[in-house]
Amino acid sequence: QNEEKWDFVLVSDIHEMGSEKENKRKKFLDELQKKGFTIKKIEDTKLFYGVRAPPHIFWKYQSFLTNSDSRQQNSSANQDIPVTTRIRVVHFILQNTVTSDLEKLHDLMKKKVFEAAFPLHKNEEIRRILKKKWARWRVMFKEQPIEEIRCYFGEKVALYFAWLGWYTYLLIFAAVAGLATVAAGAIVFTSSQVSKEICDANNTIMCPLCDQNCSFWVLSDTCTYAKITHMIDNEATVVFAMFMAIWATVFLELWKRQRATVATNWDLYGWDEEEEELALHLINNSQHEPQLYQHSYFRSTIVLLLALLMILVLIGIAHALVIYRAVAMALFMQSEGSLLSRHADTIAVMTGAVLHYLTIVTMSKVNWHVALYLCKLEKPRTSSQGENSFTVKIFIFQFFTNFSSLIYVAFFLGRINGRPGHYVRVAGHWRLEECHPSGCITDLFIQMAVIMVLKQTISNIMEYLIPWISHRLRKKKKSPKKRSMMLGEEEEAEDPCKRQWLNNYELNEVDRFSLFNEYLEIVIQYSFTTIFVAAFPLAPLLALINNVIEIHMDAIKMMRLRRRMVPRKAKDIGIWLQVLEAIGILAVIGNGLVIAITSDFIPVQVYKYMYSPCTRENHTSMDCSTGYINNSLSVFHIRDFEPHTKVLPEFNGLCCRYRDYRNADDYTYTVQFWHIFAARLAFLILFEHVALCVKLIAAWYIPDVPQRVKNRILKEKHSNLQNELRWVMPWKVPG
Q1: Which residues on adjacent β-strands are paired with residue 212?
Q2: For 641, left (φ over 0), alpha (ψ -120 to 50), or beta?
């Protein structure tokens, strides 16, 4: 029943006869008919137009691209064309058909002449297989049917799921390593000498954490916090950070191999996107002239300056979060509630993280519009070039939105706040936060944990619920009212297409960014999983849990809640691969900085080998970090407090302690501070060079293209040349 196979459906409101909208619609449909398209009209609460392309369009396509996914032209060519190719070609022609008013479908949809244009989910065998083997929760831990996804949604979607599946599989190893790191910390390091010293420091009086109504406090109050800190901040973390740098490289290199295999199996290895786009333009309009390459330095400069301005705005928002934390800390400290004032630092960090999450959600929408505007300014030559340009911009903006606040916590918190008697203040009033005496890494841990958990749980719930509720509402609203039957009146036979078209129309619409959004979400998650993983070793585990759910949630959305995506051809994941490689390099730098600057790993090592009792006496039984806490706290004389400081009168001593390496008399930095500074710098340089060298070796060691794929391509080239030679030989024989 070939007559009822429709490639696309256009939906329109019922306009008045002779109205401008109706005339525009008629002109567009006339243009399609001139090209040989068959159009079928069904009237319901809306007007539905089924569109079917003539066979000669696909014959042209086959003759243009003999090396693509179609077979050589023959009499039954129309049957041989895959459905995905039919939809892709028809979609291109619909989007590029110009009416006599010089309007395209995109312009007509803006003017509400047409409401929607979509290919149909059909009751094919392949759809039943996908619903059974993929788009349901009970097959969560089974392999994805990538070949079937490709046959139904096209190569681009299939490659996304192949990549996501591969990333999720390799996350298992990273998650196990992260769990092992935390387990090692829990078993071995909660009883570490440093934690013990903090828990036993009943007589170590610390300086107040705020200027007004704050009392001195005893170091042993932070015993639990110290144990948590040393669960993350220990020798195992350094090994784990190095492991993750190598893991990121191995993941990408193995993916390149996987992609090469897939692209060869799908006969896409030699496929060229630009050639395909030119071919489609010529099929649509044989007089088409290609748009030539051009580059404007002026336009590029404007785009660059505007992008930098946007980045400065995002960094400014991170500064606002810092100010919030400083003010919140001061207000919580002065509050009447004992719970608030006792845990002011933790509450300030937690609320700061929630606020950071809200800014991420808000700024993501702003970033989207800014990136689109900058792309329009650039005037990309082709749609794929525009997509690449948009990808880079949106990723950079999202990166600063997500990571500015984390960069502050990791590298600036507690390092730019001054010292007792001479604090750095916001607007000359509020003190900046200090690091906890057991280290800053726990602040980073809390910040990352809150953002990752919120981002993944809320995003996933919204991502599923919004389309589901929207689909339900559309179904309720769009379902046609059944006419009440008159006695003896015969029911009119309903067109079999009508129900199918209505069902598809009731689904949620998709646009060209639907797949892009999925990529962006996972790439930002990959950044969290690799860049500051030294501070949050559980990140890969959270990512793994999220991805297992994400794959099947995306599948259910695509198969059951959304209209069918227009299948697109692709032989790799495009510019996202370069983005992932950039994240891999940032991960090495980020983790090196976390261990060198945020973590207490370096100060402890410097103390062990230069200042501990072990250097003076040969104590084999003694832990060399004995005395580290006392050594890392400087002495401050209470008489040197700033005049406006009001301290609760609970303490009669002369001195209090604070975390820094300063002399007790003039508060200048001690020699040990400079030793630690030099050691941090040396470690950073060493770690990054070693990690980058290991990355390069791993990239060299694992070939991008497997041997069997190379041999297969070589044999194909050889046999093609042999065939050509057979044709040429008889004509070349002399005489």
Answers
A1: 646
A2: beta
Q: What is the DSSP letter of 500?
A: H
pLDDT at 66: 64
Percentage helix, strand, coil for the chain under 3-state DSSP, each rounded to 5:
65, 5, 30
Q: What size, in residues, is the chain? A: 735
Q: What gap in Å lies between CA 658 and CA 434, rounded to an integer?
A: 10
**Cα–Cα distance, 93 to 544 (Å, whole number):** 41
Render 505-523 in DSSP notation, one character per residue. HHSBP--TTHHHHHHHHHH
Look-up of token digits 């990538």 = 146
User: What residues pair up with 206 in beta bridges, in sequence order?
Assistant: 217, 657
pLDDT in tens, 47-94: 889 998 888 888 888 877 764 443 333 334 444 688 888 899 999 999
Residue 329 burial (C-beta neighbours within 10 Å; 0-12, 13-18, 19+): buried
CA distance linking residue 146 with residue 160, whole number of Å: 10
Helix (H) or strand (E) holding 47: strand 47-52
Report how far apart the first and last C-alpha atoms of the chain are (Å, whole number): 57
DSSP H or E run through 38: strand 38-43
Token pair 């010292």: residue: 419
Which residue numbers in the chain have pLDDT < 70?
A: 1-4, 66-80, 189-190, 212-213, 334, 336-338, 341-342, 436-439, 477-494, 618-620, 647-652, 729-735
Sequence-distant (6+) residues with CB within 8 A of 659 are 414, 434, 435, 437, 632, 633, 634
What residues contact 500, with CB distance under 8 A and at least 6 apart? Answer: 120, 122, 123
Separation CA 140–CA 365 (nearest Å)? 31
Q: Are 441 and 600 in contact (CB under 8 A)?
A: yes
Structure confidence at residue 396 (pLDDT): 92
Q: For residues 303 and 297, give the distance between their C-alpha atoms in angstroms, rounded to a whole number.
A: 10
**The pair of three-digit structure tokens given for residue 723, joined into one six-digit string:** 């065939």
Q: What is the predicted pLDDT for the residue at 105?
A: 87
Q: Judge whether 459 and 360 are in contact, CB under 8 Å.
A: no
β-strands 212-214, 646-647 pairing:
parallel
Long-range contacts: 259-263, Cβ < 8 Å, 24+? Answer: 259/159, 259/162, 259/163, 259/571, 259/572, 259/573, 260/704, 260/705, 260/706, 260/709, 261/706, 261/709, 262/146, 262/159, 262/162, 263/571, 263/572
Measured CA to CA in angstroms, residue 315 lies from 178, 405, 526, 619 at distances of: 30, 8, 21, 50
* Residue whose entry in the numeric block shows the structure tokens 């606020």: 355
- Look up residue 580 and give its two tokens: 């992932």
3-state secondary structure 16-36: CCCCHHHHHHHHHHHHHHHCC
Query: d(Cα 688, Cα 89) in Å, to the nearest integer?
Result: 49
Report pLDDT for 167: 93
> Is residue 472 within 8 Å of residue 441, measured between CB atoms?
no
Nearest to 558 by CA among 510, 594, 520, 621: 510
Tokens describing residue 223: 């015993």
Instruction: Yes or no: say if 584 and 252 are a contact pair by the CB < 8 Å rule.
Output: yes
From CA 427, how far away is CA 277, in angstroms rounded? 57
Helices (H), 234-342: 235-265, 273-284, 297-334, 338-342
